[in-house]
Structures are given as structure tokens and as C-alpha cells.
Design goal:
2 copies of one chain form a homodimer.
Chain A (H helix, E strand, L loop, with lengths): L3 H8 L1 H9 L3 H11 L4 E5 L3 H15 L4 E4 L3 H4 L10 E6 L6 H12 L3 E6 L5 H5 L2 E4 L12 H17 L4 H24 L2 H5 L4 E5 L5 H15 L2 E5 L1 H5 L12 E4 L6 H13 L4 E5 L10 E4 L9 H19 L18
Parallel strand pairs in A: 1-2, 1-3, 3-4, 4-5, 6-7, 6-8, 8-9, 9-10
Helix pairs in contact in A: 2-8, 2-9, 3-8, 4-8, 4-11, 8-9, 9-14, 11-14
Chain lengths: 346, 346
């Protein structure tokens, strides 16, 4: 059955989150980061791992108030630019631990004095060996090519690491609470995405809009739709949508708005309204999905105990939507055309 | 006539580049940056200005070997995260100088001790007033809603600033030489894009692939196609293409590869080959366009005197392609539906 493995792994996520929250390595890595004088956190990864890196910028920015950014990998691996990284932490993300340019980036920045942390589901991987510190994702074996629980645990690992650096133990408790909320919400969410499948079976392009803490969610949902449903889905911040892309939107071009209750919500609502006026069919998800005016479909999720953890819940409707729409299109997220579980491209 | 103003402004670019290269403000800003102990350059902007920011990461990384990154605007303007920016330079880009959250970002980071530089075509704008230093783009009045010369001068301004910080006066000479090369190449490029129009008039989605120095070019070309031709065009690095998006590519999904002769070229060629194998119609541009195997269309440009300046030439086929395809679709880049010259969205 198509998507059988992908769906099973989506349902395993509450358990995977609890396993991660119990691991001691996050606290050990945080202690090492605190001991060293760190000026900036350089996040690197490709695909879903890069979407998680976008989230990491906010986890570090809002919890310990550290500068964090998605670093250019090519400046180090191709151009060998020799930028000073001696006061940087590197957080390198690869579910397989085998992404070649990420492994190379870690080797080179470590040699130049950066404190390197591998975030991977494979503790025996090349990436784990290359980095000084390891945070194992503890997601268990993931077999569907479309990642779910490894991705959710990557977001959670970054929140836990940033929380531990900030010495805020309530983040661990909040991740455990999110696991419970997700467990309770999953059956209802699975039912809620079903009616969307016929409408979206013929969609060729979409925008996914999020801002701030939810921009990484938008990137992940857009990528999941692209790889499983072959939809050209592009993520935008709510403000960037109005700086050009809105010109392409019409009634054949649905827009998905991730509306979570936080400081960015007014900007998100303004972007959703702009898309609606351009004729787009609106899908609203997130804890404030009910507040998006004119949304044709709503996929609300519970409100996380800490706003920074919202994505751990708001990613899930995107996963379920991808599974459902892929099946309606006769595609299989367990084995998308042209992809393999481990990507070794340079 | 549709695109008349856009085309006229594309043709004015060599002159606009020469005007910018003659301005003294870049050198003054560079001296101020050198005097202050700067740990990192925070680049901010939306739309085309954000594409230029992607380029700025490489200009600062490769010339003075400084850490530069596209900063999160929302962490400062919405979340007021209070991150330490006292050893940062802020380079804030807005052609109109009126983008509200960019102006607010500058005001707040300046109050927190960052050295702020406005890069704008409007020296009397709010952004210019908010920042400590000003680099005027000197592009002259731009009337088409689709930006061309202000965007090219933004890329050039970042190269000139990074070159001056690195005390490499040859960058100024090289920009002047690029202006000459562009002047010579423009008529041939205008002829070269004409045959592409019938093929692309019905295209609804595309990928634009670049890596390293040319990733900002890929972002700018994709955005230009989206806003002028209503194509869902998404930019990817060559490596990220293989981490998911390649699954959506087929014979109805063209891929544009920007191939410039530098350290990233092998990675770019590998991505182009992957797209070709997936059945995509390939467009190859850049100085190494002739080396991309299996490209159905080639839009080569001259090799810039310094590799870091390649984008100043490789952006232009994208502009001309956008103008030509828009006309074939009956659209007008001077006045795209749903856009205005100044975007005031929050």
C-alpha cells in the first residue's frame, strides 16, 4: 500500500520525541557550548535538514539570544575561503550522516577551531565521526524516503539544545508535553486532511507561507509536497510574498498559510489576505488556523506550551496532507521517483 | 509597448554601473567598517534585495574573508530578541528605501550598537535617514516595476564594498571592465533570447539552479520570472536540487542552470545532468554555458575579469528572457499584475 511506511512513521513521532527528550547528549553538548566563548552558531544541512536549520536560527535567537545563521557550505567546501570560525559553533544536520559536503564542511571548520556538533540519526556515520560532539536523533529506523520522524526530532533537538544553552529546563518538559498533544491530535488530523485530497490532486504549484518561528515549517512542508506530490511548492515569508511572488498567484495557485499564535501572526494574516484577494484557494494550519479569514480549508493544531515549539505540531498537518494528496495522485511517498533515502550528491 | 521601460532600463545598466563605480561613498563606508572591529556582516532585504544579500555573503566571504549572512529580520522587528549586534555591521538593502521592516530593523540594530549601512537608490529615503552610512545606488530613476538596473547596481555595490574592505582596488577597475563587456554583449544577448519565447510561453513552473557566487543570481532570475511571467520559478543550489526537488522534474518542467567558470562548476554540471536525465528541458547560461551537456538553449556571457563579478553578467540573460517571455505571454513587466514599485507590506 502506498504511503504505508510514511504514515506509520508519522504516527511514531510522539514516541520518537519522548525518546529524544530522554537522551543525555543534548545537555552535554549545551555544556560544551557554554564553556567555550561562542559568538555565532553556524547551521548547515540540505533538504529537510536545511529547513530545520531555518528553525534553529529562531531557537538560538529566542532562547539563549545567540546569533545563529544558515552558513554557506560552498564558501568552505568549494572556495576554501578561510573565514575565521574559531569562535563559532557548527551545528551540522544530516539524517543519514552521510551528506558529503556537510561532512567535509565539518572536517574543515573543526580543523579551523570551530566547536562542531553533529545532529544525525546515525551515530556511527561519517558525520558523527567528523564532529567533536554528537546529538543522536533517536528517531529509530526510518524507511520511507520522505522523512518524517527524523525531521521532527531534528527540530526538537535544536529546540532542546538552544533551551539547554539558555539553561531553561522547562523546554524539555514542554517537548514531552508536545508529544502528548501530538498523540491526542493525530487521529483528528488524519481525518481532517482526507477531504482535501480531491481538490489538490491536480494542483501543480503552490506557495507555503510562514514567518519567524514557522518559516522553517513552511520550507519543510513545501519540500515535502514537492518530493512526494510533485507539486512545485515554494516557501515564502509573509513579507517576501508581497515582494514579487504574489504576481503569480491566481485561482489556480493555492496558498498554504501557517498561522501560529505569536508576534508574527498579524504579518501572516496580512499575507493570507493578499493571497485571498488574488483569488488563491487558502489552506490555513497552525494554532491560529481558525483566525485566517476566508480560508477554504483549515487544519488547526493545539497550541504548544512554549511558542518556540509550535513547529513540532504545525509540521504534522503538512506531512499528512503530503501522504494523502500523494495517494490521490497515485504516487508513493515511501518511494518517490528519482529519490533515494541517502543523497550522496556533491 | 509592453516591457518598453524594462528593456530600456536593462540597456542602461552599463552606464549605471559606471556611475556607481565613480561614487566615493563605497570607500567611505569601507573605511568605517575597517575602523570598527566587525565580527559579522548582517545583510537584510526583501525580494530582489534579498537575492542581492545572498550574493553579498560571497562578496564578503571571498574578498575580505568576513563572515556575512542574511539575518532574520523578524527576530529583531517582531520578536525583539535582543541579540548582541554590537560587533556587527548591518547592510540593509532596499531600492526604494521604504521597506518598513527593513527600516525598523536598521533603527533597532543601530540603537543596539551595530554599524548600519543603507544601500538604496533613494538617498532621501527613510532607510537612508535611519542608517549611519549610505551607499547610493546611483542607478538613476527606475520606472518599470520589475527592477533591473537598481538590482544590478546592488550586486555591484556589495562587490565594491567588500573589495574596498579587503583593500583590493582592482575590484573597481574590474567593475568598469564588466560595464564594457556588458555593453558589447547586450545586442547579441537580446537576439539570443528571442528564439526561447515560443517554447516558454506556456511554461508554468521552472527551477533555476546556481551554486556559490551564482546562487544569488539564481534567486534573482527565479524571482524575475515569477513576477513578470507568472511562472512558479524556484531557485535551488545544485546540491539541494538532488535533496528532494528533483523528484518533481519531468519533461514539462524546464531547468535553468547558471554555469560560471569557478570552483562550483562541477557541482553545477552534476545537477544539470541530473535534471537532464529526469527529462527536463535545460537552459544553460553563464560564462561556461557551452560546457553544460545536453542543454537545449544556451545563453553564454563573457567571463568577468574577477570570478566574484560573474553575476553582474550572468543576471542579464535572465532579465532579457523575462522581458521576452512576458511579451510572448501578453504580460507587461513594466506593470505586473498585483505589484507596485514600492512594496510597503509589513
Amino acid at each position: 500500500l502506498a504511503a504505508e511506511t510514511f504514515l506509520a512513521e508519522i504516527r511514531e513521532q510522539p514516541e520518537a520525541l519522548r525518546r529524544l527528550a530522554a537522551r543525555p547528549e543534548v545537555g552535554e553538548a549545551a555544556a560544551a557550548l557554554r564553556r567555550r566563548g561562542i559568538d555565532a552558531v553556524r547551521l548547515v544541512g540540505h533538504g529537510s535538514s536545511d529547513a530545520a536549520a531555518s528553525y534553529g536560527v529562531y531557537a538560538f535567537g529566542l532562547l539563549p539570544r545567540w546569533t545563529a545563521f544558515r552558513d554557506s557550505i560552498s564558501l568552505t567546501t568549494y572556495y576554501d575561503a578561510g573565514i575565521d570560525v574559531s569562535r563559532s559553533a557548527v551545528v551540522a544536520i544530516s539524517q543519514s550522516g552521510r551528506t558529503p559536503d556537510v561532512v567535509e564542511y565539518v572536517a574543515r571548520t573543526r580543523a579551523r577551531g570551530a566547536l562542531t556538533v553533529a545532529v544525525t540519526n546515525e551515530p556511527e556515520s561519517e558525520l558523527a565521526a567528523a564532529a567533536e560532539l554528537l546529538i543522536p536523533l533517536a528517531a529509530g529506523d526510518e524507511r520511507a524516503v520522505a522523512a518524517s520522524k527524523t525531521l521532527l526530532n531534528t527540530f526538537a533537538a535544536l529546540a532542546l539544545l538552544a533551551g539547554a544553552v539558555a539553561e531553561r529546563p522547562e523546554v524539555v518538559r514542554a517537548v514531552r508535553r508536545v508529544a502528548e498533544q501530538l498523540e491526542e491530535a493525530l487521529p483528528g488530523l488524519e481525518d481532517a486532511v482526507e477531504p482535501l485530497a480531491p481538490t489538490f490532486a491536480f494542483v501543480g504549484r503552490m506557495y507555503v507561507v510562514g514567518r519567524g518561528v514557522e518559516f522553517g515549517t513552511a520550507r519543510e512542508i513545501a519540500l515535502k509536497l514537492t518530493e512526494t506530490c510533485r507539486v512545485a511548492a515554494e516557501p515564502w515569508t509573509s513579507t517576501d510574498l508581497s515582494h514579487g511572488p504574489i504576481a503569480a498567484v491566481d485561482s489556480m495557485f493555492p496558498v498554504w498559510a501557517i498561522a501560529s499564535r505569536d508576534e508574527c501572526l498579524p504579518a501572516l494574516m496580512a499575507a493570507a489576505e493578499l493571497a485571498r484577494k488574488a483569488g488563491a484557494t487558502l489552506v490555513a494550519s497552525g494554532s491560529a488556523a481558525g483566525e485566517v479569514a476566508g480560508a477554504e480549508f483549515r487544519l488547526p493544531v493545539p497550541e504548544a506550551p512554549l511558542p518556540i515549539l509550535s513547529p513540532l505540531l504545525s509540521i504534522v498537518p503538512g506531512q499528512l496532507f503530503a501522504a494523502t494528496v500523494a495517494r490521490a495522485k497515485g504516487l508513493d511517498p515511501d518511494r518517490p521517483v528519482g529519490l533515494t533515502k541517502v543523497t550522496l550528491a556533491q
